[in-house]
Design the sequence.
C-alpha cells in the first residue's frame, strides 16, 4: 500500500511568479532538499501532455555520470515522487543510450506500451526522463524500451527501491522515508567498527535462518519477525556484527541473492524497504553492527534485469571474453563505462547512506581483478600492458573504497578475495586496493584440512597449521567459516571433525578456541555455532530442534563464551592486525601436537597464553617455559562441563616457578584436557 502522503510530503515556497515549475519532494525521499538544488536547467513543463517534459538533472550531474564520478545517482535516477505546479506525480529517469523510444507502463494504464513516453535529453547522454502527474506511490511499473535494431523490451527500473515479489518482476514506486532511532550507535560506531575493536560476525541467510513453515521454501519470516527473533539471538550469542547474505532483490532463491537484479532495492520476500531499515535500526540499538554482502562482479540474464538493457550490451562488456563468466553463467559489468562505474558506486553508497549499514563484504573480488579468472588459455585477452589484470576493474575498486571511506569514515569494506593479489588492504595512495579487511581463505582451507586429519597424525601437519602466521601481516584478515564451507557435499562443520560423537564436539570446540584466539576478525555462518548435523539447506531452516540435546546446546554456549572473551579481553582484539599482538611460545612439542602462543594487548598485564592440545590424550603436569609474565589464572577451558566437556581436567591453581630472573623466565605446570584448549591470564 502507498504511504500516507500527508506524513511523507512537504512543499516548498511559491516561485514568486517566475515561469519555472514549482517543485517539492517528500521530506524523506532519496533526493536532497529541493531548496538546495539548482533548477535553472529545468525544461518548461507542457501540462497538456500526459508526460511533462523536464529534468531534475543538471549538466554537471550528467557530466559526472558519464565520467564515472557521480556516486549519488539514487537521488535523481529511478522514480521520485515530487510536486510540480501544485500537482503531485512521479518523475522518472533512466539511462538507455541505444533506445529510440522509452515509455512507462504498468497497472495504471493496463500495461499499454506507448501511452506514457519519456523524453530523451537534448545532450545525447542516452538519459530518458519525464514527469507523470497524479502517479501514485505503490504502483507497479516497467520501462517499455524500443532499443537497438528496433528490439522491444520490457525492463524493470535499475534504480527501483522496491520490486514485486518474485515471480512477478515489476518495479514499484516507493518513498524511502524512515525515522531512524540509532543516533547513539551512529555517534559511537567509529569505535565499534575500528580495526582495533572486537569483530565477531554472524553470517546469516535471512530466508533460511528460520521459516514460519520449515518445510515450505515459499514461507518467509518477515523483517518484523526477524527483528523479534534474530536480534535478541545475536545479542545473546555476543556477536559484535551480523552479516546478511545479499538482501538486494534477486529473481532466483537458489542463487542465495548473489544473482542480483535490484541493486538499490531490499528484497520484497521479507517486506518493504522500511522493514529492513527497522531491522538494522534494532541491531544498532542493541550495539550490533550490520554488514551487507554486495555483488558488483556480475548479474543474471533475466529478461527484466540489466542484461541487454536497451537491446545492446549496455551494462555488460560486449566482448564475452570479458563480459560473460562461466562460473556463474552470468554477465560481467563493463567497468570501463563511466555510467556503469557511477551506477555501481552509487549502489554501494546507497546502502550506507539510506540504510545506515556498517560495512559491505564485496563478493568475488578475484573474478573482477583477473581477466583469466577461471578461464582456459585462449578464452581471455591480456590487457594493454600484456598482463592479466582488469585495469578498469582495479580502478573501479580503488574509487569505490576511496569514496566509501571518504563519505563514511566509520565503516569497513571487506574483500572476498581468494588469490594472492598484493595490497588488497593497503591504502590506494600506496598502490593498494583500499579495502579495510580481506577474507583469509588460506587460513580457512589449512585449518579445516588440519582438523579433518586424524589427531594422531596431526604431528605431521603442524607446519600447515602454523603457516597462517607466515603471511598474516600482509593484509587485515577476517577468518571465515562461511556458508560456502557447509554446502555442496562439503559436510557440516561437526562432521568435518574426526572421531566419535564426543570427539567431534571436542574437536569443534577446540577449532573455535583456536579461531577466536588467532589474530584477526572472525566470521561464523549460522548453524555452525550449535553444530548442525546436516549441510545448510537454503530451502528449509536451521536445525533448531538439535538444541534439545546437550552437546549442541552447550557448544552454542561455548561460542557465546568465546565471544564474551573477545569483547572483554583487550589482548584478543587491540593489536589483532599488528605483529605486536601475537607471539609463538612453543612449536617444539610436535610429537604431542601441542601448540602454545601469546595474544598481547597494549598493556602487558592484559597478555593471554593460549595452549591447544590437538590429540585425545590428557596431559597432566605438563610443563612450558614462558618469558615476560607469570600466568596465574585459567580464564577459559574448552573441556568444561558447561560446554559438554569432561569437566575433569582443569587448573584451579596454576603452578609456576621463576627459573631465570634476568630473562624473567617462568616454568608453568598445567593440566591439558584431551582435544582441549585453555587460556591463561
Sequence:
Amino acid at each position: 500500500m502507498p504511504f500516507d502522503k500527508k506524513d511523507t510530503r512537504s512543499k516548498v515556497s511559491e516561485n514568486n511568479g517566475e515561469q519555472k515549475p514549482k517543485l517539492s519532494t517528500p521530506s524523506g525521499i532519496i533526493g536532497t532538499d529541493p531548496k538546495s538544488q539548482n533548477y535553472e536547467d529545468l525544461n518548461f513543463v507542457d501540462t497538456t501532455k500526459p508526460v511533462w517534459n523536464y529534468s531534475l538533472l543538471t549538466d554537471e550531474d550528467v557530466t559526472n555520470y558519464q565520467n564515472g564520478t557521480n556516486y549519488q545517482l539514487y537521488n535523481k535516477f529511478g522514480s521520485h515522487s515530487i510536486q510540480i505546479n501544485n500537482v503531485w506525480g512521479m518523475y522518472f529517469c533512466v539511462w538507455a543510450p541505444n533506445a529510440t523510444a522509452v515509455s512507462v507502463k504498468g497497472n495504471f494504464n493496463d500495461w499499454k506500451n506507448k501511452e506514457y513516453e519519456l523524453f530523451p535529453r537534448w545532450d545525447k547522454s542516452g538519459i530518458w526522463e519525464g514527469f507523470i502527474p497524479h502517479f501514485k506511490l505503490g504502483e507497479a511499473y516497467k520501462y517499455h524500451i524500443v532499443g537497438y535494431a528496433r528490439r522491444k523490451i520490457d525492463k524493470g527500473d535499475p534504480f527501483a527501491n522496491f520490486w514485486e515479489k518474485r515471480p512477478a518482476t515489476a518495479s514499484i514506486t516507493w518513498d524511502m522515508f524512515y525515522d531512524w532511532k540509532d543516533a547513539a550507535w551512529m555517534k559511537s560506531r567509529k569505535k565499534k567498527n575500528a580495526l582495533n575493536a572486537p569483530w565477531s560476525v554472524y553470517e546469516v541467510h535471512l530466508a533460511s535462518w528460520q521459516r514460519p513453515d520449515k518445510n515450505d521454501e515459499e514461507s518467509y519470516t518477515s523483517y518484523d519477525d526477524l527483528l523479534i527473533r534474530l536480534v535478541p539471538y545475536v545479542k545473546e550469542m555476543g556477536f559484535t556484527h551480523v552479516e546478511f547474505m545479499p538482501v538486494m532483490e534477486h529473481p532466483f532463491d537458489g542463487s542465495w541473492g548473489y544473482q542480483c537484479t535490484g541493486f538499490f532495492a531490499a528484497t520484497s520476500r521479507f517486506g518493504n524497504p522500511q522493514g529492513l531499515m527497522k531491522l538494522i535500526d534494532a541491531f544498532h540499538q542493541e550495539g550490533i553492527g550490520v554488514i551487507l554482502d554486495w555483488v558488483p562482479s556480475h548479474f543474471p540474464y533475466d529478461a527484466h534485469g540489466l542484461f541487454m538493457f536497451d537491446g545492446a550490451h549496455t551494462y555488460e562488456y560486449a566482448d564475452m571474453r570479458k563480459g560473460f563468466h562461466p562460473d556463474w553463467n552470468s554477465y560481467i559489468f563493463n567497468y570501463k563505462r563511466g555510467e556503469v562505474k557511477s551506477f555501481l558506486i552509487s549502489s554501494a553508497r546507497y546502502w550506507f547512506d539510506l540504510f545506515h549499514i556498517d560495512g559491505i563484504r564485496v563478493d568475488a573480488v578475484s573474478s573482477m581483478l583477473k581477466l583469466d579468472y577461471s578461464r582456459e588459455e585462449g578464452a581471455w585477452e591480456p590487457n594493454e600492458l600484456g598482463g592479466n589484470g582488469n585495469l578498469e576493474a582495479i580502478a573501479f575498486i580503488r574509487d569505490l573504497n576511496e569514496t566509501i571511506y571518504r563519505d563514511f569514515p566509520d565503516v569497513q569494506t571487506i574483500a572476498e578475495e581468494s588469490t594472492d593479489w598484493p595490497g588488497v588492504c593497503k591504502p590506494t595512495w600506496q598502490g593498494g586496493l583500499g579495502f579495510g579487511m580481506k577474507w583469509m581463505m588460506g587460513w580457512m582451507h589449512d585449518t579445516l584440512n588440519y582438523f579433518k586429519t586424524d589427531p594422531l597424525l596431526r604431528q605431521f601437519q603442524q607446519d600447515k597449521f602454523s603457516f597462517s602466521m607466515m603471511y598474516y601481516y600482509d593484509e587485515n584478515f577476517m577468518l571465515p567459516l562461511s556458508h560456502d564451507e557447509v554446502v555442496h557435499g562439503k559436510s557440516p562443520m561437526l562432521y568435518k571433525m574426526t572421531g566419535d560423537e564426543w570427539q567431534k564436539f571436542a574437536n569443534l570446540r577446540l577449532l573455535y578456541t583456536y579461531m577466536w584466539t588467532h589474530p584477526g576478525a572472525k566470521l561464523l555462518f549460522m548453524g555452525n555455532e550449535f553444530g548442525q548435523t546436516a549441510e545448510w539447506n537454503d530451502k528449509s531452516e536451521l536445525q533448531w530442534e538439535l538444541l534439545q540435546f546437550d552437546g549442541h546446546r552447550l557448544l552454542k554456549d561455548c561460542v557465546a563464551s568465546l565471544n564474551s572473551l573477545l569483547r572483554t579481553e583487550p589482548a584478543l582484539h587491540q593489536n589483532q592486525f599488528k605483529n605486536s599482538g601475537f607471539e609463538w611460545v612453543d612449536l617444539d612439542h610436535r610429537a604431542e601436537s601441542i601448540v602454545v602462543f601469546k595474544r598481547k594487548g597494549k598493556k602487558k598485564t592484559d597478555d593471554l597464553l593460549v595452549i591447544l592440545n590437538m590429540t585425545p590424550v590428557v596431559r597432566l603436569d605438563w610443563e612450558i617455559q614462558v618469558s615476560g609474565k607469570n600466568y596465574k589464572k585459567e580464564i577459559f577451558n574448552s573441556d568444561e562441563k558447561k560446554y559438554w566437556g569432561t569437566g575433569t581436567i582443569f587448573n584451579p591453581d596454576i603452578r609456576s616457578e621463576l627459573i631465570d630472573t634476568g630473562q624473567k623466565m617462568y616454568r608453568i605446570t598445567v593440566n591439558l584436557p584431551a582435544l582441549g584448549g585453555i587460556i591463561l591470564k
Observations:
- The two ends are 58 Å apart (CA to CA).
